[in-house]
């Protein structure tokens, strides 16, 4: 099997993709909290904050961090077992449910590949919320239930193994084929990365011109 095709994104590419989606997120979801999935979601969350302010206070939107690692699925693993493959390396501090109650929380990652990580993150955060809601009188629960949405810089167009419920707003900055994305924060030599990204871009333009 050959090397999978790579797509190199520069810091500027990512900044502009995020900028391009920020109005839609502001008007359609109005988050007042970001939950960045580390490490890939940290930089996108910080950039998105530049374009969005808390809708009621006009202040910066707080960024909470969670860390998740995806372990390769074993052959024969069913969708029900998916959550077992994602491992928490970091979670919201003490009383996670309390931090979330009443908020409009946007879960942020750099890429939606199989969607397992996003499914896991949403399920676990919703569990924290439901546990906290049980401590409130029943009449208050619905109004305090956290509203979640998802933002990814890139969504890979491929069959997804993880699922997100249809009532969860989903924002993707860009849709891409099923290629391997190289992010600028992963490389040691950023000048070389940018040079190669430019070369790829020029090659793509030549190919398009030829058709
Ligand atoms: P999932 O398969 O759960 O949607 O993605 C899990 C994680 O795998 C992502 O958060 C990301 O860290 C990593 N990942 C998936 N596809 C890519 C890719 O094309 N490039 C990079 N750098 N990481 C990826």
TrEMBL record:
Gene Ontology cellular component terms for the protein in this record: cytoplasm
Record's keyword terms, sorted: Coiled coil, Glycosyltransferase, Transferase
GO molecular function: hypoxanthine phosphoribosyltransferase activity
GO process terms (BP): GMP salvage; hypoxanthine metabolic process; IMP salvage; XMP salvage
TM stretches of this protein: none
Keyword Manganese: no
InterPro entries named among the record's database cross-references: PRTase-like, PRTase_dom
Keyword Transferase: yes
Coiled-coil blocks: 108-142
Descriptive protein name: PRTase-like protein
Record organism: Suillus discolor
């Amino acid at each position: 099997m050959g090397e999978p095709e790579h797509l190199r994104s520069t810091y500027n590419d990512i900044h502009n993709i995020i900028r391009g989606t920020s109005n839609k997120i502001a008007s359609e979801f109005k988050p007042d909290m970001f939950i960045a999935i580390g490490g890939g979601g940290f930089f996108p969350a910080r950039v998105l904050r530049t374009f969005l302010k808390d809708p009621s206070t006009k202040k910066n939107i707080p960024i909470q961090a969670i860390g998740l690692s995806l372990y390769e699925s074993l052959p024969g693993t069913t969708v029900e077992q998916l959550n077992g493959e994602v491992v928490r390396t970091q979670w919201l501090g003490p009383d996670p449910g309390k931090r979330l109650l009443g908020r409009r929380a946007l879960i942020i990652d750099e890429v939606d590949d199989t969607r397992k990580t996003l499914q896991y993150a949403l399920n676990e955060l919703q569990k924290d919320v439901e546990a906290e809601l049980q401590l409130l009188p029943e009449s208050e629960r619905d109004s305090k239930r956290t509203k979640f949405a998802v933002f990814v810089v890139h969504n890979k167009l491929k069959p997804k193994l993880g699922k997100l419920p249809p009532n969860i707003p989903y924002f993707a900055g860009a849709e891409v084929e099923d290629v391997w994305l190289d992010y600028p924060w992963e490389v040691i030599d950023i000048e070389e990365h940018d040079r190669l990204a430019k070369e790829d871009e020029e090659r793509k333009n030549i190919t398009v011109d030829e058709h």
